[in-house]
Amino acid sequence: MKIVVMEPLGISAYEQEELLQKAAKNGHETVFYNSRPDDANEVEKRAKGAEVVIIANMPFKRDFIEKCHDMKFLSVAFAGVDHVDIQYCKEKGIIVSNAANYSTNAVSELTFGLAISVLRKIPESDILAKNSKTKIVGTELYGKKFGVVGTGAIGSRVCNIAKAFGCDVYAYSRTEKEELKNIGVKYIALNELMSLCDIISLHVPFNSGTDKIISAEMIKLMKNNSIIINTARGGVIDSQALADALNLDKIAGAGIDVLEKEPPFDTAHPLISAKNTVITPHAAFATKEALNTRAIMVFDNVEFWKKGTPRNLCW
């Protein structure tokens, strides 16, 4: 069986060779491409004869999928699959699996990296120190009301870390978890969370139900000393409304890892120049440990599918 890895997975040459050897032992011919395809014609060329295609976060919509004439299984090296036309895959009978929970620790850690960077004004302090200037006063996490929107694997991990920092933790989610309630997490309505919490952290997938779930109206509920952290997806928040609130000092700051489109980010995006905002280029998932874990996971997904017991299914 032929497997084509359509784009880089962010792993070392050594780790890539290990995966190649393991796949060969399982009877597979595997081709790694270390650049993204430029267009649909290049996708067609690469995917020729491949029953399995592996991608990371490259947009994989109908025009690309229909060029993969032999594809039966798509293994996505990412937790979110909003960049894939899942409905068209379903229509074509193409099974899709993702890399569920591969970056739980990585994303959770950057969530607090962003929160502390904003609260303690680390970027500004770095500039001051390097220019022989004095300190600026920041804000502590300890004792703050920390709101978590979405308590899946990452959101749950964030709740636990926030508790360890000494925060009072509140959550909003479609499904409430008893194990979080047992450690003192309080589930409340979204509008109540937005108006109550000092730090608000977003951990929901992007879909029709979460599109701009943090709307202009929700942002207006926030306290003027509160901050918001988004390591989920850019589309879950009204970016213009958030930028306006930041620039008018209606809220105290934001830590943003994701915008509506993948990086490199458009410098004209309203959040790029917004006040009191720390931005990273969709890097929350990007640790050596997480990238290696997901590469192993997407190849394991292939073996589960081959055995007739596919896992991490997306439809």
Give a structural overview.
The model has no long low-confidence stretch (mean pLDDT 97). Strands 8-7-6-9-10-11-12 form a 7-stranded parallel sheet, with helices on both faces. The chain is elongated, with a radius of gyration of 21 Å. 36% of the residues lie in helices and 15% in strands. The chain folds into 2 domains: 2-102 and 287-306, 3-Layer(aba) Sandwich (Rossmann fold), CATH 3.40.50.720; 104-279, NAD(P)-binding Rossmann-like Domain (Rossmann fold), CATH 3.40.50. By secondary structure, the protein is an alpha/beta fold. The two termini are 23 Å apart. Helix 5 crosses helix 7.
* Broad shape: elongated
CATH architectural group of the largest domain: 3-Layer(aba) Sandwich
What distance separates the N and C termini?
23 Å
Q: What's the CATH class of the largest domain, please? A: Alpha Beta
What class do helices, strands and sheet pairing give?
A: alpha/beta
CATH superfamily of the largest domain: NAD(P)-binding Rossmann-like Domain
Give the strand tally: 12
For this structure, the CATH topology of the largest domain is Rossmann fold
Summed up, the helix count is 12
**Total of domains:** 2
Encode the helix/strand succession as letters.
EHEHEHEHEHHEHEHEHEHEHEEH
Work out the radius of gyration.
Answer: 21 Å
